[in-house]
Fold this sequence. Notes:
By secondary structure, the chain is of the alpha+beta class. Helices cover 35% and strands 15% of the residues. Strands 8-14-13-11-9-10 form a 6-stranded mixed sheet. Strand 5 (237-239), helix 8 and strand 6 (269-275) form a beta-alpha-beta unit. The protein starts with 40 loop residues before the first helix and ends in an 8-residue tail after the last helix.
Amino acid sequence: MVPSAVVVLDALPLSVNGKLDRKALPAPAYTTGAGRGPANVREEKLCAAFAEVLGLENVGVDDDFFRLGGHSLLAIRLVEILRVQGVSIAVRALFDAPTVAGLAESIGAQQVAVPENLIPEGATEITPEMLPLVDLTTEEVARIVATVEGGAANIADIYPLAPLQEGLLFHHLLADGGDDAYVMRAVLEFDSRDRADAFASALQAVADRHDIYRTSLAWEGLREPVQVVWREAVMPVAEVTLDPQSADPVNELVALVGSSMDLGRAPLLDLRLAAAPGGERWLVLMRMHHTVRDHTSLQVVLDEVKALLGGRGDELPEPLPFRNFVAQVRGGADRAGAERYFGELLSDITEPTAPYGLADVRGDGADSVHEVVQFSTELDTRIRAVARRAGVSTATVLHVAWARVLAAVSGREDVVFGSVLYGRLNAGAGADRVPGPFMNTLPVRARMGDIGALAAVGVMRGQLAELLEHEHTPLVVAQRASGAVGDTPLFTSFLNYRRNPGEDIDAGLEGGRVALVRERTNYPLVILVDDNGKGIEIAVDAVAPIDSLAVGILVRTASETLVSALESALDGGPDLPLSAIDVLDAGARRQVTEVWNDTGVGVLPVSVVGLFEAQVVRSPGVVAVV
């Protein structure tokens, strides 16, 4: 019952009837450090870390991390800062008890000890004993060595796949050498060939720094697939000739190169250079497979490239191996706990939540249409304000908004969809700066029914926090724990809430710019929420017959009405049922209820007998009744 904010007024605003006018009350400004101060060294460290991460002068022990503007990316920084100071915290504890006082009681979670890499540099033979992260026979090691150019001398490490990599390998094999949905294509434009060549050299230097970009996959003849780190892996660079008359050279370059890659050869990134028609500009197509990167990794790569091009390579931090993450995931995995959690959540789910009836999750995304819908500044401000008041993140609010839309377009009151987890919260030290595929997609469930909007946001917050405990669980574990049979998917849509830096991804890339970034998935409907801290936009990737733009508008409308319902409930009004949240704006509602239902047809004032006689005159030789 401790107030989170106190506002002093000269007088209470009154309505014309002399009653308190609640709507005229000023919004309380949340102030920090108003509660009691730290009582011990542990609380002092936490208060200082909160203040540093959140950019505040001081923080009290009762201040709430999320009410002060904290989110998942800042949570990673907080964990890292405390780790350096010798304080270990469980990330889920921050979501469950986001105050300094609550978090102080949970200190003590330990990271998994990562065994050292036992392959000595210069080794010409590799034995199973040198590979502490994976159980292989001598014959299996020999098969792996045979896949690497240069043999054993060119192998730096061998270890299992991360959860996301397992699923990506499945879809790669499903493509059977054809277009791979998970080959990311990015086209950069430079003002000269020299700058394009310099970019290629800098990218090779980044690959030399990070083991994940010198990694290939091996699976033939093995009990489980593994990834193999090469000591040296030269990035393929080739020149492509474009049509001099091309009106769209960027997309022509993408189409010419295609999206098929060999996962058995490192590195899993390559470049294609092409002179742009009619000038000195050069286009560079960078392809990178999802098995070696996620959304954060692309930013890490470009930041390092810019540092190298700017002569600041010596300022880059010491690279950390991806093996540490794999060891944390496998060593800290609680498979039984994950099976129990997803069993309780999903055991009665027997069929997928299929928006617009689309239940196929084995596509390649080639036919998907990408559309973007912007949120107004006013809506963005309201979402952030209501999230702080409710003690949740903006991501939680948008998850609930999408759940409401999904219920409408799938005709269900109980929906399941995928949520992309950042994957770096429990990934060990330095996870915020290590490139690689950390992210994972796991199911989230939302029931409409009579639950209020504010209550639904609270339930979603708790579910997302609990999901963090299992963020590296393979999706197949959740699938098997559900009531779905055979290869029936749990969901055919997912939401990816991405927190991006405020500046453009190519800011600081002298003489160059990012002209296109194209990512695809095997899902027929994908909702991408891009949050740069000052604005939110919804990107929708969908295949026919889904209208991507229409879905984006539905999400925006649902967000507006959900925020209004939350504001009302937080101001003391009734908690509007989530099922009553509108997903159609006025124009769309008129389209559905009036325009599409305008079935009126002009009928002449003639009797049925008269119509019969007229038909006889038109067709006198046709048999009417037999």
